[in-house]
Amino acid sequence: MYELLKKDGKAKRGRLHTVHGTIETPVFMNVGTAAAIKGAVSTDDLRQIKTQVELSNTYHLHVRPGDEIVKKLGGLHRFMNWDRPILTDSGGFQVFSLASLRKIKEEGVHFNSHIDGRKIFMGPEESMQIQSNLASTIAMAFDECPPSTADRKYIGNSVDRTARWLKRCKDEMARLNSLPDTINPHQLLFGINQGGIYEDIRIEHAQKITELDLDGYAVGGLAVGESHEEMYRILDAVVPHLPEKKPTYLMGVGTPANILEAVDRGVDFFDCVYPSRNGRHGHVYTNHGKMNLFNAKYELDERPIEEGCGCPACRSYSRAYIRHLLKAKEMLGMRLCVLHNLYFYNTMMEEIRDAIDAGEYQSYKKKKLEGLSGR
């Protein structure tokens, strides 16, 4: 159940109660695609760096080790030793971005695994079954994520099919949650709004999926090539047509600035690979902009990545040492940068929640954006 605690303009401060604990929103979900955060980050680390929700991927876990295996081992929470909420995305995005050969039909999608080329079929029912086997806290509906460059006619047809698929996802999820051997019979289902950069298609689709009264609603198919301005325009248009008293999730977004702007438009769930991916390449976030620790100027710099930061990297190590680790290709260098970046994101979300609570979101956002841009 989602409680809307407070609003500051359009910014929402909420709380989602789940079977695996309460999620304070706005929240950033830390991405662990194959049931692990890339960069040698353990679930004990996640607890230390204030992670509320871990996100894993249906497609990747279905291909390896196999969702049936995860089910036999007691579900994803037990498998990876994580007792807080997990969101699994439906595999739709991966099917459409990774699979080289695929055929989309009304029943679902036939495609070849990106690992070994074997033929796989996935439709709404299969995606729900896999996610039920994984026993995540929140399952995402199976949708088509059309390229942002697709023409209006293609997007219209695709969105209509996604709406039909959503109804099938809801029915299948209800069936699975009623079975005696289901690990998590309280699994929640979020629907996904699509429509490319066409406001009218997006709005019509939002109205249609709202009627299904789901546990939450995501905006998908953004941050896939369109400009930031276009993304904000779509959010301005579509978020008012999604239920305010349900979580609103912007999938795969984004930079700290993107998050600050989207919170201002009523979004309260986020996920993105940026903090871990950038961290693995020595790029770290600070309140004064992004730093590249490979730069020679940090060779003798004994300061932490950011003064006053409470993350495991900043509490114990200098920029000079972390730079040395990165240059020497020591795994610890990547690990420390990833920990710092995720801590930075999770702390920013805490600050966002405090600012909305205090009714000071606008001034917080302005100050934060100025700092992030390095001014």
From TrEMBL:
SUPFAM superfamilies linked to this entry: tRNA-guanine transglycosylase
Alphabetized UniProt keyword annotations: Glycosyltransferase, Metal-binding, Queuosine biosynthesis, Transferase, tRNA processing, Zinc
Residues noted as binding Zn(2+) in the record, renumbered to the chain: C309, C311, C314, H340
Reaction catalyzed: 7-aminomethyl-7-carbaguanine + guanosine(34) in tRNA = 7-aminomethyl-7-carbaguanosine(34) in tRNA + guanine
Pathway stated in the Swiss-Prot or TrEMBL entry: tRNA modification; tRNA-queuosine biosynthesis
Record region (RNA binding): 252-258
Role, per record: Catalyzes the base-exchange of a guanine (G) residue with the queuine precursor 7-aminomethyl-7-deazaguanine (PreQ1) at position 34 (anticodon wobble position) in tRNAs with GU(N) anticodons (tRNA-Asp, -Asn, -His and -Tyr). Catalysis occurs through a double-displacement mechanism. The nucleophile active site attacks the C1' of nucleotide 34 to detach the guanine base from the RNA, forming a covalent enzyme-RNA intermediate. The proton acceptor active site deprotonates the incoming PreQ1, allowing a nucleophilic attack on the C1' of the ribose to form the product.
NCBIfam families tied to this protein: Q_tRNA_tgt, tgt_general
Protein name: Queuine tRNA-ribosyltransferase
Organism: Ruminococcus turbiniformis
